[in-house]
Amino acid sequence: MLFRNRFLLLLALAALLAFLSLSLQFFHLIPMSAARNGASSKSRKRIMPDPVTEPPVTDPVYEALLYCNIPRVAERSMEGHAPHHFKLVSVHVLIRHGDRYPLYAIPKTKRPEIDCTLMANRKPYHPKLEAFVNHMSKGSGSSFESPLNSMPLYPNHALCEMGELTQTGVVQHLQNGQLLGDIYLKKHKLLPSDWSPDQLYLETTGRSRTLQSGLALLYGFLPDFDWKKIYFRHQPSVLFCSGNCYCPVRNQYLEKEQRRQYLLRLKNSQLEQTYGEMAKIVNVPTKLLRASNPIDSMLCHFCHNVSFPCTSSGCLDMEHFKVIKMHQIEDEKERRKKRLYLGYSLLGAHPILNQTIDRMQRIAEGRKDEVFALYSAHDVTLSPVLSALGLSEARFPRFAARLIFELWQDREKPSEHSVRILYNGVDVTFHTFFCQDHHKRSSKPMCPLENLVRFVKRDMFVTLDSSSTNYHDACHREGV
């Protein structure tokens, strides 16, 4: 008995020492082992801080953590919340793809070693991950709209290719799908158990990361779905403007906005100094280093807790990262004050918003098709939509961001329909242009559908300070 007690005591002590060792490593109190390329352990330490509460002042590291959207615990959300006498009749989901490998490489540095094969026993973990891979392997040759039918249905490279979805990106959208399925299917019965293909509308851009993100969300939402019922449409434009993409005035706003960005960068002497320091480390001209968009690659290192790249001249480090990230944050703040990006957004987002309200109106009239719509897109898709809706204070779309439009029917007055807008699970309806004052004039808990319809069909052009009353005229007016 005495031997057993001593053994248990030693076992507990060993477990405590192991825990303390891991904790010290995580919080940088002891150095990590030397890197394979010979850099010192000090320069190769972990760079992932521990996220806590939001800091009182803007912190670029905290903002970067939010952008990474690292899967952790199940999040709380406000989707599907409404008084009992309201019935959910349709849901329209606009997502940004999940975590991806960089689109740009920092010159003369080694690419971050990220494995893009999917492994259920590797973090980040999701209980549906292995089943997702198995189900995707059965869907090869699916009859999606070209060129989607020739794309891989899930990432599968030992070393990620440029722009490829990672395991983190898949898990992010499996989580999104499972969360929405629990709310919209299990709780609200949006789709019947014998749902038909015409009750879904699925659209994605022609990038593997958006198709795969859409499939991951769909699998989390509808596990083991019937491949014969699934059809993804291809959208050539990141603005989802379909046949309404030609808009000269929108392009003029974009050119002016890009000029504003350029002038702001020139004013930032700390940023230029930082680019110069980084260029010396990688031994390239500053102009070339800047053109390679180093923050894109550094964000990958940061989000995956991989040390920043080193050369014989030194290492890119957290201070470089923070300066560039802080400039991005300041750029977003200045953008809100100007109306250039808003002008671009109102015209850029109009086609997809118009398509959404047309679908809502058909459902409000009694149609039962396309009650669940999913658009799998990019940050450059979500950002203009957020701005056009008046959500200028919303953070830049993180990996796997979701913007949701819910349509509700009043059971007591079946002819009346209302909408809710949610961004990453937060109800932002009363922050929008079309409904920001509604709750002051009405006791109704949601925004009338007609408010959104009137905004998209008419008031968007008023917000644009335009005498135009339709999209075509606004796109072709003179004097911008």
Provide a descriptive summary of the structure in words.
InterPro entries: Acid_Pase_AS (IPR033379), His_Pase_clade-2 (IPR000560), His_PPase_superfam (IPR029033), Histidine_acid_phosphatase (IPR050645). One of its GO terms (biological process) is chondroitin sulfate proteoglycan biosynthetic process. Its EC number is 3.1.3.2. It is an enzyme of class 3 (hydrolase). With 480 residues, the chain is an alpha/beta fold. The chain contains 15 helices and 10 strands. It has helices at residues 2-26, 60-68, 129-137, 167-187, 208-221, 248-267, 269-282, 286-291, 294-303, 318-337, 340-364, 379-389, 438-441, 449-463, 471-476; strands spanning 86-96, 200-205, 232-235, 310-311, 314-315, 372-377, 402-410, 417-423, 426-427, 447-448. The strands form 2 sheets. Strands 1, 2, 3, 6, 7, 8, 9 and 10 form an 8-stranded mixed sheet that branches. The chain has a two-stranded antiparallel ribbon with strand order 4-5. The longest helix is centred in the N-terminal third of the chain and has 25 residues, at 2-26. It is globular, with a radius of gyration of 25 Å.
Task: Tell me briefly what this model is.
With 480 residues, the chain is α/β, with parallel strands linked by helices. Helix content is 44%, strand content 11%. It is built from 15 helices and ten strands.
